[in-house]
Design brief:
With about 170 residues, the protein is mostly helical. It has helices at about 5-15, 20-35, 40-50, 50-60, 90, 100-105, 115-165; strands at about 70-75, 80. α1 runs antiparallel to α2 and α1 packs parallel to α4 (about 50-60). The relative contact order is 0.06.
């Protein structure tokens, strides 16, 4: 992926989710980051990660923020802020773990795109199918192994009690 493909994919992912001026601010921020990082485009892209995930972070951070600056997450678990008034310390945060992202998807289903909802519910249904299959295997094992053993133990106990009473 090139710098231009990265920025184009980011622009497309942001389009329709935040205002055009915010999109341009974010694109400018990442263009500046590419220009001023001192790294190759490939290194910067590897550091930043998937532009769609960055777009999701930007969109999520913009909801109800009252005009506060956005925080931009990268795959290297650092964040960069476009606010010059924020200190470097407050500008760094850890990005969410995979479990936190899954829980967020589970709790914020109405903010997911149709494709994300389809993927989410497919995973949920497959997980439920696995649980049901395991439960069926357990019940099958109970019927085929445990119940015959209990019957044999009962019969042995009955036979022992019948013969022990004749002494």
């Amino acid at each position: 992926m090139t710098r231009y493909e990265f920025l184009n994919e980011l622009r497309q992912a942001l389009s329709g989710n935040i205002s055009d001026s915010e999109i341009e601010d974010n694109i400018r921020y990442y263009e500046d980051y590419f220009n001023n990082s001192g790294k190759s485009d490939e290194e910067v892209i590897n550091e930043l990660g998937d532009p769609r995930l960055i777009a999701r972070s930007i969109i999520d951070s913009g909801e109800g923020d009252g005009g506060r600056p956005h925080t931009f997450y990268t795959s290297s678990e650092e964040s960069y802020s476009n606010s010059s008034s924020e200190s470097e310390e407050s500008g760094k945060k850890k990005s969410a773990s995979g479990m936190e992202l899954f829980l967020k998807m589970f709790l914020d289903r109405e903010e997911m795109t149709l494709w994300e909802k389809i993927k989410f519910w497919t995973i949920v249904i497959l997980a439920m199918a696995v649980v049901v299959a395991v439960a069926i295997l357990i019940v099958k094992a109970m019927v085929q192994i445990v119940i015959p053993i209990l019957i044999i133990v009962f019969i042995i106990g009955l036979v022992v009690s019948l013969f022990s009473g004749r002494d």
